[in-house]
Design a protein that fits this description.
In the N-terminal section; belongs to the glycosyltransferase 51 family. In the C-terminal section; belongs to the transpeptidase family. The relative contact order is 0.10. The protein has 22 helices and 18 strands. The strands form five sheets. It has a five-stranded mixed beta sheet with strand order 2-1-3-11-12. A hairpin with a 5-residue loop joins β1 and β2. α5 packs across α7 and α9 packs across α11. The chain has about 700 residues and is α+β, with helices and mostly antiparallel strands. The protein folds into two domains: about 180 residues, Penicillin binding protein transpeptidase fold (Orthogonal Bundle), CATH 1.10.3810; about 350 residues, DD-peptidase/beta-lactamase superfamily (Beta-lactamase), CATH 3.40.710.10. The longest helix has about 35 residues.
């Protein structure tokens, strides 16, 4: 038959609209079927690749772990109420009960039960209730091993493909054993062995029919059917389990009735979670708290997570040893300082390298490295940096250092002179710091602190007391370390972080840290502050922290010496040290330069000796900064400043600023500001002229009132 004849035949056919529509629908459905088939094959292969099913090996515990950056195990993440048993150690009635209620065609399907799924869907639609689940035992196992509990179409498809691959890789007995060891039975119990011990005080191998069916009733909805708190609901579902077993001829009618009549005593036989020790507990606890916020308790303790942190175990061990030794030394010497915080960050990244949150974690779990404390004069470099960066002052400005009153806020002084910025900050003079904040403006000062990463500011901090570290809440040692790191990093702030990466049990990356950084001040400003703080350590209030001349930092002390600080840095690491008492009791007679600075030095020196740090210069460039004192003319008297305009700088060359009423705020309880001469600095030392300065200053009395 030639083509012409065929065409003639087709032309002779009467094409009814329904026939045409049928052909179109058939072609459309055929195209969809082919496309669906191609998609299924592609997705199946993608799932196999993603979850590496070819190399998958079942691990019953699936415990997670937290590691330091250098690979040291900090702690395991698991709950001790998950005990693996082999299938032959599980009572036969329990195996049968679970299969009967969860997946009675388990031994004949290939991972998915098409008929069962359709029937479950039909019953759910006709009854309006979720009478039956559509997932097979293998699908449930795939979900527990690899996926999250979210209910999405994508997850269901992935679950189906994984179930098929599990069936190809493992025998039915192996799949059932894995399932019975993974399934959740409520009250923190994973696996039949733990559940049997928890509810009945016996191993899974010894369960009778009544007990077995009570357990089999739970997995459908553990929080609803667990027998400790919901015995009635458990009993109702137990009846359903026994009825299903009877329908499948697994038990007799008599056995069913006897099981229903049996009174089973259910009680909690063993604790849910036992104590798991942590290495470097203050740091590790913070990591666990972050994980719980990110993923919830179940995934953290039962998800097999691998968590890599920022901690340097060598630095952390040195920090712990020195912190403990220092507090014990204070006790022996009669120094009333019973607690300590020490925290180090990487200047370039913000990675937290070491964290000590207290003297003894077993006695006090409060992490003092994360709790705000009054910073005293340790806050001053941040104020100077902000003012210099915005052009309010320069590094060579001359500042008033004599006693002044700003409205009803008075700052005393035993100095009758103007001093350069270098002299003011190096020797921690109070009046110049207040002058700088007053001229910069309170709102600008607070905004500047926020840019430096200080998160603990309050509306009550809108007053001049903040110039000297008087704050409503205070500052966290961790945030102080991160703020000072800006000075070593060309003015760039890196938000401090604990966790570098997280993987799930299958090796999939769940989290990878992305740096949060911003330019806070110009590189030149950072270098200026660094040069001043280098001098503060070489011959100023922080001299007891000096190691090689390449360390920069600032001391801080508050009223009655309740908080003693030293925050310092070298090229690579910034460290904040706080010493005091958890109950805020004073450490009278001692200052930041006496206790915190030597502790900082001992820690950093140990890091150098261990090869963790190198005492290299922070910056190669040297900026000329004058170091000068100019005595105030005798005819000038103590000034009462009543108003100020931000446009009027506090340099020597112009008239003194005044304070607007909005800027004059006397705190209800002025924050901890003190006036004293530190014990580690002579009363009237000659101020040395470092190599980067251009002028030799006169001798001045050091007024380090809150070092």
């Amino acid at each position: 038959m030639d083509i012409k004849h065929i065409l003639a035949k087709l032309k002779s056919i009467k094409w009814h609209p329904c026939l045409i529509l049928g052909i179109i629908l058939f072609a459309f459905m055929l195209t969809c079927a082919i496309s669906l088939g191609i998609w299924v094959v592609q997705e199946y292969r993608a799932v196999a690749e993603k979850y590496d099913m070819a190399n998958f090996q079942y691990q019953s515990s699936r415990r997670g772990a937290i590691y330091s950056a250098d690979g040291v195990l900090l702690t395991y993440l698991y709950q001790q109420n998950k005990d693996h048993v082999q299938l032959q150690q599980i009572a036969k009635p329990l195996q049968q009960a679970v299969i009967a209620i969860e997946d009675h065609r388990f031994y004949i399907h290939f991972g998915i039960d098409v008929l069962g799924t359709l029937r479950a869907l039909y019953k759910d639609l006709t009854t309006g209730q979720a009478v039956e689940g559509g997932s097979t035992i293998t699908q449930q196992l795939a979900r527990n091993l690899f996926l999250t509990p979210e209910k999405t179409l994508s997850r269901k498809i992935t679950e189906t493909f994984l179930a098929i691959q599990l069936e190809r890789k493992f025998t039915k007995e192996e799949i059932l054993e894995m399932y019975l060891n993974e399934i959740y039975f409520g009250n923190g119990c994973y696996g039949v062995e733990t559940a049997a011990q928890k509810y009945f005080g016996k191993p899974a191998s010894e369960l009778n029919l009544a007990e077995a069916t009570m357990l089999a009733a739970i997995p459908k909805a553990p929080n609803l059917y667990e027998p400790l708190n919901h015995p009635k609901e458990n009993k109702k579902r137990q009846e359903l389990v026994l009825g299903r077993m009877l329908d499948l001829s697994l038990i007799s009618q008599q056995e069913r009735e006897e099981a229903l009549k049996q009174e089973v005593k259910v009680r909690q036989f063993k604790p849910i979670v036992q104590h798991i020790p942590y290495k470097f507990p203050y740091f590790t606890t913070e990591v666990i708290n972050q994980l719980l916020k990110m993923y919830g308790r179940d995934k953290v303790y039962n998800g097999g997570l691998k968590v890599v942190t920022t901690l340097d175990s060598r630095a952390a061990q040195i920090a712990e040893d020195i912190a403990k030794a220092k507090i014990e030394q204070f006790k022996r010497s009669g120094i009333a300082a019973s607690n300590i915080a020490l925290v180090s960050v990487n200047n370039k990244t913000g990675a937290i390298l070491a964290m000590v949150g207290g003297y003894d974690f077993s006695q006090d779990q409060n992490n003092l490295a994360m709790i705000p404390r009054q910073p005293g004069s340790a806050i001053k470099p941040l104020h100077y940096a902000g003012a210099i960066d915005k052009g309010v002052i320069s590094e060579n400005s001359m500042l008033a250092a004599y006693a002044k009153s700003y409205g009803n806020y008075h700052v005393d002084s035993n100095i009758n002179a103007h001093v350069s910025v270098m002299v003011a900050l190096k020797n921690s003079l109070n009046v110049p710091a207040v002058e700088v904040v007053n001229t910069f403006g309170i709102s600008n000062t607070l905004a500047n602190l926020k840019r430096f990463g200080i998160t603990t500011l309050s509306e009550h901090d809108s007053n001049l007391a903040i110039a000297l570290g008087g704050m409503y809440h205070g500052v966290k040692p961790l945030e102080m370390a991160a703020a000072f790191a800006v000075f070593a990093n060309n003015g760039v702030y890196n938000k401090p972080y604990f966790i570098s990466s997280i993987e799930d049990a299958a090796g999939n990356i769940l989290y990878l840290h992305r740096p949060e950084r911003r330019q806070v001040i110009e590189p030149r400003t950072a270098q200026v502050i660094t040069q001043i703080l280098l001098q503060a350590v070489r011959g100023g209030t922080g001299s007891r922290a000096n190691i090689s001349g390449n360390e920069a930092g600032k001391t801080g002390t508050t009223n009655d010496s309740r908080c003693l600080w030293f925050v310092g840095y070298n090229k690579d690491i910034s460290t904040a040290v706080w010493i005091g008492n958890s109950d805020h009791s004073p450490v009278r007679g001692f200052y930041g330069g006496d206790l915190a600075a030597p502790t900082w030095r001992e820690y950093h020196l140990a890091l150098i000796n261990q090869g963790i740090l190198k005492p290299t210069p922070i910056y190669d460039q040297v900026i000329s900064i004058k170091q000068e004192v100019q005595e105030k003319p005798k005819e000038e008297t103590r000034e009462e400043i009543t108003e100020a305009t931000p446009e009027q700088p506090v340099h020597q060359e112009v008239s003194e600023p005044t304070t607007p009423a909005a800027e004059v705020v006397t705190p209800a309880q002025p924050a901890e500001i003190i006036e004293h001469t530190p014990t580690d600095t002579p009363t009237e030392p000659p101020v040395p002229a470092p190599t980067e300065t251009t002028e030799t200053p006169a001798e001045i009395p050091v007024e380090d009132t809150s070092p």
